[in-house]
Amino acid sequence: MRRCSLGTALFVTALLIAGCGTTDKTTAPQQTNPFAAAVVGTDSTLEVVTWNIEQFPKNGQATVDFVVDAVQAVDADIVALQEITSVLDFRKVDAALPGYDSFRASSAYADLNLAYLYKNSGPLTVGSIYEILTDDDALPRSPLVLQGDFAGAPVVIIDNHYKAKGDGHLDLSDDWDEETRRYHASQDLQSYIEDHFSGMRVIMVGDFNDELTDAPGDNVFENFLEDGADYRFADLAIAQGPSSGWSYPSWPSHLDHILVTAPLFPALDKAGSEVGVIRLYDFMTSGWSAYDKNISDHLPVFVRIKP
Predict the structure, then answer these.
(1) For the chain, what is the mean pLDDT?
(2) How many domains does the chain have?
């Protein structure tokens, strides 16, 4: 029988250790995304999500990780965010999301800033992001505009976070009444849209901090609701539906809205288009309590439009 020399044996051993020959390299199993079933994105539709991530990051690195998982799973083209407090942690989210770019404003009251995450490839092309109405007392956070194209068609997204709180009654004699400030915010935004984006495809989203279903005398969105030929709240049926489907379960109420302009009505009415609240807590072991502790007190709302 032929014997190997000591040198040969050591050489063969070194090859095996290096992973040569017939041995297989093993890798650690990837973590399963808990929100994988929450996908709303498709290759042929434009998806816009509005999401108030309460004082992000509400629970430090755990919040960062959950938000990364949620954005990856939902797979929307544009995610408009509110209450992004930490720029460093927001950069962590951006860094962990290949295929997305980000923009965060930095001028908001109490550092509760608006932001975007948006896909950097595919049919969406983002041209510019900027703040508007920066000196408007009715708006504690200046609306954040994203302008771009989707499948070659211009589109405008306006991210908002209206004034919070109030007693539910509109008092137009008091300029600092919370409902009055939201009322003036709606009026000012309508004027801005008509002055700067007339005839364009506009999707206005955000935490509007008020309900679409209030009586006309107290409804801060009455200017949009009365002008049904030019504006439509895509989520109106949600607001009129059961509380189990609302975006702010802890009240409960529906405060996060999606408004579209008339050029998008035909696309919104097409088969394949959809609007809904993404109940992310349904995918967490401890349900709402875990979601509220680790992520936010608001749920994301999405619109999917078939161009």
Answers:
(1) 91
(2) 1
